[in-house]
């Protein structure tokens, strides 16, 4: 009997793992939003961990080696005190996502070369820059008043000499109808976002945009800071109505860039 039970457990575990979209490794399927939150907070204990292991908010720039290049991303620490302004400095989830992409490409689990990528809420732009260095043709997006710093960081870090792909910056406000440039001639192969699930008020607009950007060949990677369980649960609950959501385990991240305050999800539209 015991043997049968453990086989049942193994089967249940295996059934909950699957590959999603263009990411070549099986991930754990998120079955239920509230259960996922319980699990994440219990296993990772985010509140007891140090915030921002890889970034410093008081610093004027973030320096990071990625894809064989020294990246230098300008930050605007003084803007952090301006009400409503986010994205003026980097958070750990951006570093985790950027280095995850590099690691996944280097280990053959992901191909970005020649793929069309849209990054949402790019902020200072690290993730989109790394995707371009890895060969993708990236549109980095944000609200209109964030675009100048974003453009400066893209110009400083991605050029024809060092990038295998390309990067450009464009305005994209979540919840607005999308311009054709994002979805024509077909939806992008990848959508990226780091620390974009942080306000309950923005969740529905973010999901509207994810829905509009996603075709049947679109793979979405979202890295989130584990700061607010209610907001993440709200996001997952609504997202799971239309998307299959997978949790990418830390064993698949870049080994030097893991943080228990960050979670990484992959989403594909349900067929
Ligand atoms: C917490 S920051 C994260 C920035 C960056 N991805 C990172 O990891 O450092 C959230 C980003 O989402 C952008 N954002 C917030 N609401 C938005 C909206 N309604 N439409 C488009 N971008 C938005 C902000 O301007 C900001 O750049």
Automatic annotation (TrEMBL):
SUPFAM superfamilies: S-adenosyl-L-methionine-dependent methyltransferases (SSF53335). GO terms for molecular function: methyltransferase activity. Keywords: Methyltransferase, Transferase. GO terms for biological process: methylation. It comes from the Eukaryota. It holds the Pfam family Methyltransf_16. This is Protein N-lysine methyltransferase METTL21A. It comes from Elaeis guineensis var. tenera (Oil palm). The lineage of its organism: Eukaryota, Viridiplantae, Streptophyta, Embryophyta, Tracheophyta.
């Amino acid at each position: 009997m015991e043997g049968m039970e453990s086989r049942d457990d193994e089967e249940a575990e295996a059934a909950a793992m699957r590959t999603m979209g263009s990411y070549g490794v099986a991930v754990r399927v998120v079955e239920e939003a509230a259960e996922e939150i319980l699990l994440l907070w219990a296993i990772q204990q985010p509140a007891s961990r140090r915030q921002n292991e890889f970034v410093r908010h008081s610093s004027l720039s973030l320096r990071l080696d990625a894809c064989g290049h020294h990246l230098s991303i300008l930050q605007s620490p003084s803007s952090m005190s301006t009400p409503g302004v986010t994205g003026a400095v980097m958070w750990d989830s951006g570093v985790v996502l950027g280095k995850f992409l590099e690691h996944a490409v280097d280990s053959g689990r992901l191909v970005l070369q020649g793929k069309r990528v849209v990054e949402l809420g790019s902020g200072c732009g690290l993730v989109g820059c790394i995707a371009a260095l890895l060969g993708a043709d990236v549109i980095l997006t944000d609200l209109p008043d964030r675009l100048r710093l974003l453009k400066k960081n893209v110009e400083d870090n991605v050029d024809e000499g060092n990038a295998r792909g390309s990067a450009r910056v464009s305005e994209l406000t979540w919840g607005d109808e999308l311009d054709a440039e994002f979805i024509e001639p077909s939806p992008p192969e990848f959508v990226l976002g780091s620390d974009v699930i942080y306000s309950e008020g923005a969740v529905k607009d973010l999901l509207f945009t994810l829905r509009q950007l996603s075709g049947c060949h679109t793979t979405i990677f979202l890295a989130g800071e584990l700061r607010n369980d209610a907001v993440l649960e709200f996001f997952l609950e609504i997202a799971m109505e239309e998307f299959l959501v997978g949790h990418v385990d830390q064993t698949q991240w870049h080994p030097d860039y893991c943080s228990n305050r960050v979670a990484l999800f992959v989403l594909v539209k349900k067929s």
